[in-house]
Write a structure and sequence with these properties.
A hairpin with a 4-residue loop joins strand 3 and strand 4. With 356 residues, this protein is an alpha+beta fold. Helix 2 packs across helix 3. The protein is globular and about 70 Å long. The protein has a five-stranded mixed beta sheet with strand order 1-6-9-7-8, covered by helices on one side. The structure holds adenosine-5'-diphosphate, ligand DP6 and cobalt (II) ion. The site of ligand DP6 has 15 residues, from helix 4. Cobalt (II) ion (CO) binds next to helix 2. Keywords: ATP-binding, Kinase, Lipid biosynthesis, Lipid metabolism, Lyase, Nucleotide-binding, Steroid biosynthesis, Steroid metabolism, Sterol biosynthesis, Sterol metabolism, Transferase. This is Diphosphomevalonate decarboxylase. It catalyses: (R)-5-diphosphomevalonate + ATP = isopentenyl diphosphate + ADP + phosphate + CO2. One of its GO terms (biological process) is sterol biosynthetic process.
Length: 356
C-alpha cells in the first residue's frame, strides 16, 4: 500500500512596510501593499507534514502537538480546499495519478519559536502548510501562484513563499487574483543584511493581528491617511533602496513604517498596544546608536521594526552585528546569548538570524 506524505518548512518574514488592514476579510485582500524580508530557514520556521489516506474520515490538523479545529469556511479549510482543487487539475490532466484530491488529509505542524507572539507564526505557518500540500499533490504551481492560496490563510503568509526581499502587491481585482507576492530581490542580491531577533516576551498576544487590524479599519482616521498618502511612496522608495543596496534609506523607511504602524494601533478605538517598555527602550538604544554614527559623519547602522507584538527585529549590515549584540547585552543583562551553529547569538530571550 502506498503512503502519500510530504514535509515542507517555511521561514517567517518580517515586514519593513507593514500590512495592516483588509478591504476584503474573507479573501484576505489588503488595504495597502507591503514589503518584507524573509529570514533564514535555519532560524524561525514552521515545519509541516501532510498525509493523504483513503482511510482518513476528515481533514485534521495538529499545531505544536495539539489538535486545532478546522472550521467550515475558515482559513484552514479554505487553504486545504484550494489545494485540493489544484490537485484535481493535475488528476484530470494525468489520469494515472492517484486520486489524492478525494482523500482527507492529516496535517501536523510545529513552530520552532513562540506561536502568536508577534513573530509572524501565521506567516511561516500557512506558507509551510501550502508548501507541504503542494509537495504532497506534486503541483506544478509557482511560488506566486501558491502565495495566492497562503494569502487566504494569513495575509502575511503570501510573502513567506519567497526568500529574500518580497513585496505583496495589493492588487485591485475583486476576486483577489492579482493580490500575491513577488520577489523584489533574492537574498543573494544583498547578503550583507542580517536580522537580529530580540525576544522580549514569548507570551501569546492579547489582540490577534486579525481582530486588531479589523478594529483599525473600522475606527482609525490615521489608517486612511497612511494607505492613501504614505505607503505607495514608501513601497517605491524602499524597493529602490534594496536594489541599490542603500542601507541608510532602507533603515530610515523601515523604522518610520514600524512607528506609523504602531501609531495607527494607538489611533484605533479602543487603542491597541503591542509594544511594551522593553520594546521602547530598544528603540531608544538603536536611535542613540544611529545618532552617534550620524553625528560622526557616518550613516545609519541599524533599523528596528516591530510586528504586532513586543519583540524587536533589528536589521543591520553584518559588520555592525557584534557591536549591536554587545550593546544589547550591556543594557539587557538578563539576555544571555550563546553561540548558535552559525556562529551568531541565539537563545530564548535574545536570538539572531541570518537573512535567508
Ligand atoms: P503571529 O504574530 O505569530 O503571526 P497571529 O495572531 O497573526 O500571530 O497568528 C497566530 C495564529 O496563526 C495561531 O493562533 C494559529 O492559528 C496560526 N498558526 C501559527 N502557526 C501555525 C502553523 N505552524 N500552522 C498553521 N497555523 C499556524
Ligand atoms: C504587523 O498576516 O498575521 O505582522 O491576515 O489576519 O492573518 P491576518 O494577519 P497577519 O498580519 C500581519 C501584520 C504585521 C505586518 C506584516 O506582517 O506585514
Ligand atoms: Co500573523
Amino acid at each position: 500500500m502506498s503512503v502519500y506524505q510530504a514535509t515542507a518548512s517555511a521561514p517567517v518574514n518580517i515586514a519593513c512596510i507593514k500590512y495592516w488592514g483588509k478591504r476584503d476579510t474573507k479573501l484576505i485582500l489588503p488595504t495597502n501593499s507591503s514589503l518584507s524580508v524573509t529570514l533564514d530557514q535555519d532560524h524561525l520556521r514552521s515545519t509541516t507534514t501532510s498525509r493523504a489516506d483513503p482511510s482518513f474520515e476528515k481533514d485534521r490538523l495538529w499545531l505544536n502537538g495539539k489538535e486545532e479545529e478546522i472550521k467550515e469556511g475558515g482559513r484552514l479549510a479554505t487553504c486545504i480546499k484550494e489545494m485540493k482543487r489544484l490537485r484535481r487539475e493535475v488528476e484530470e490532466k494525468s489520469p494515472s495519478e492517484p486520486k489524492l484530491s478525494s482523500f482527507a488529509v492529516h496535517i501536523a505542524s510545529r513552530n520552532n519559536f513562540p506561536t502568536a507572539a508577534g513573530l509572524a507564526s501565521s506567516a511561516s505557518g500557512f506558507a509551510a502548510l501550502v508548501s507541504s500540500l503542494a509537495a504532497l499533490y506534486k503541483l506544478p504551481a509557482t511560488p506566486s501562484e501558491l502565495s495566492l492560496i497562503s494569502r487566504q490563510g494569513s495575509g502575511s503568509a503570501c510573502r513567506s513563499l519567497f526568500g529574500g526581499f518580497v513585496a505583496w502587491e495589493m492588487g485591485s481585482a475583486a476576486d483577489g487574483s492579482d493580490s500575491y507576492a513577488v520577489e523584489v530581490a533574492p537574498q543573494s542580491h544583498w547578503p550583507d543584511i542580517h536580522a537580529l531577533i530580540c525576544v522580549v516576551s514569548d507570551d501569546k498576544k492579547g489582540t490577534s493581528s486579525t481582530s486588531g487590524m479589523q478594529r483599525t479599519v473600522e475606527t482609525s482616521p490615521l489608517l486612511q491617511h497612511r494607505i492613501k498618502n504614505v505607503v505607495p511612496e514608501r513601497m517605491k522608495a524602499i524597493s529602490e533602496a534594496i536594489l541599490a543596496k542603500d542601507f541608510d534609506t532602507f533603515a530610515r523607511i523601515t523604522m518610520q513604517d514600524s512607528n506609523q504602524f504602531h501609531a495607527v494601533c494607538l489611533d484605533t478605538d479602543p487603542p491597541i498596544f503591542y509594544m511594551n517598555d522593553v520594546s521602547r527602550s530598544i528603540i531608544a538604544l538603536v536611535t542613540e546608536y544611529n545618532r552617534v554614527s550620524v553625528e560622526n559623519g557616518g550613516k545609519l547602522k541599524a533599523a528596528y521594526t516591530y510586528d504586532a507584538g513586543p519583540n524587536a527585529v533589528i536589521y543591520a549590515p553584518k559588520e555592525n552585528l557584534k557591536e549591536i549584540v554587545s550593546m544589547i547585552i550591556r543594557y539587557f543583562p538578563q539576555a544571555e546569548p550563546f553561540k548558535d551553529p552559525f556562529g551568531l547569538f541565539a537563545n530564548e530571550s535574545l536570538g539572531s538570524g541570518r537573512v535567508v
